[in-house]
Amino acid sequence: KNAKKQTYELDIEFYDLFQKLSYNFPKTVEQLEADGKALEEYRDATNQRSFLHAAACRDDFALLERLLERKFDVLLPDRHSLLPIHLTYHESIFKLLLSKNESAQLQYLTEQGYNLLHVCCQRGFRGSDVLQRLCDSGIDVNGAAPDGHLPLSLACCCGTVRFLLKHGARVDLLNDQLVEAALLSNMRYCAAWELLPHIAHLDWFGKIAHRYLPWMVGSQNRDFFSCSNEQELTEHEDIRRILFDSLYKHSRQQASELFATVCHRAIVCCSRWFLDYDYDLNYDFADDIGYTPLLGLVSYMEELNSDIIERLLRKSINVNAVNDRKQTALILFVARFGSAQWYGHTVETARLLVNRGVTIDAQDEDGNTALHLAFGGEHWELVAFLIESNANLALKNSAGKV
Predict the structure, then answer these.
(1) Which of 92, 313, 332, 392 is most deeply packed, by most CB within 10 A?
(2) ANK repeat ranges (predicted)?
C-alpha cells in the first residue's frame, strides 16, 4: 500500500513538473537545474518515462521541440522498452522524432522483438504517410515478431488494416491464434469489421468465430451498440449468420446468456436475429438479478420490441418468472407503461401476457400487484383491462393500501 502511494505521489509530482515545463519552459528549467538534477534525469515512477515520452504521449509539439533542442535521447526506453516515438498518434510529432537518429529508431526492437511498424499497428497509428515511410524504409509489411505476430494481426484500427492490405499484407499468414489474441487484447470494432470479410470463410475461422458476438456486445447498451456493430451486422448477413451459428454450436449456455443480455439492454436487432435463427436456447435463462429475456424486454424499452415479446411468448417459457424484487413481466410492464407507450406498446401487450398465463394478482416485494401500479400511474386503460380480467380488488400492499 505504501509503495503504491509513493508511486502515485511521484507520478503526480512528475506530471506537475511536466505541466510547468509546458506552460513556462525557461523558468521551470532554471528552477529544476537549481535543485541539482538534470532535466534528462527525471522519470515518472510507474513507467519510467522521461519528459520526452510525456510530450510525445500528450501531443505537446512545442515542448517536444524544446526538449529535443536540449539533446534529449530519442533512444532512451521506458520501463516497457518503448521509445517516445512509440507513444504518439500524431504524424507531425512522429516525423519530428524520427528525424532524430532515424536509422537507429528504424532498427530498434522492443523487448518483445517488435519493430516500429509492429508497435504503430498495435497502438492504432493510422497516419498513412508515416506508415508509408516505414514501408519505404524497408520494414517488411509481413514481417513476423518473435511471438509470431504480424503487423496485420496487431493492427487495431480499421485505417491501419486498410493500409496494410493495400500494401501487400498477406491474409493467408494469419491464423486463429493470432487473430484471437488480437481480439482479446486491443482490437477495435472497426478493425475487426475491416478484417472479417477477408477471414470469415477461411477454414480456421470456425475455431474462434464464437468469440465475436460476446465481444461485440460486451458491456454496451443499445445506444453504444447501435454505433459500434449494429450497422455492420445488418449489412454483412453472411458473416452475421456465421457468428450467431458459431456461438450456438460452441455453447448453448453462452448463446442463451447473450440472448438474455441483449433483451435486457434493448439491443433489439440481436434479439430478433436470435429468434429468426430459431435456436434451441434456454429462453428462461436468468441473469444474476433474476432477469429472463421476457423480463428484460418489458423492463427496458427504448426501441420498438412488441414483436419480439409476441414471438417470445409463443415459445415454451415461464411467464411467471420473477426478478430479485419479485416483479413479474406484467408488473414490470405496468410499472413502465408510461414510457412503453412511446415505443408502440398498448394494453394489448398486457393482454398477451395475461392470455399466456401470467398470474394477474402476483405481488412484488412491496406487495404491489399490477393493479396497484396501474392505479398509481393513472393508467386507466390498464386499470379497466385488469379489472375485466378478474384482478383482485381487495389485495393490500405492504403499506396496507388496496
Answers:
(1) 332
(2) 366-398
* Cell numbers placing 297: 424486454
> Domain coordinates of the chain in residue numbers?
208-282, 284-402
Residue type, 189: Y
DSSP 8-state code for residue 315: S
Rounded Cα distance between 105 and 83, Å, is: 9
Confidence of residue 1 (pLDDT cuts 50, 70, 90): low
Per the CB < 8 A criterion, the answer to whether 31 and 25 are in contact is no
Cell of 235: 449489412
| DSSP character at residue 143 | P
Q: How far apart are CA 56 and CA 83, in angstroms?
A: 10
Which residues are CB-contacts of 357 (< 8 A; sequence separation ≥ 6)? 319, 320
Q: Dihedral sign, CA of 386, 392, 398, 399?
A: positive
**CA–CA distance, 325 with 319 (Å, rounded to integer):** 16
Convert the pLDDT of each residue in 198-220 to its tens digit.
999 999 999 999 999 999 999 99
Q: Which fold has domain 284-402?
A: 1.25.40
Model confidence over 53-85: pLDDT tens digits?
Answer: 999 999 999 999 999 999 999 999 999 999 999
User: Which cell numbers hold the place of 384?
Assistant: 379497466
Q: What is the pLDDT of residues 125-162, one digit of tens each?
A: 887 899 999 999 999 999 999 999 999 999 999 999 99
Under a CB-based contact definition with an 8 Å cutoff, are residues 361 and 391 in contact?
A: yes
By the 10 Å C-beta count (0-12 exposed, 13-18 middle, 19+ buried), 358 is classed as buried
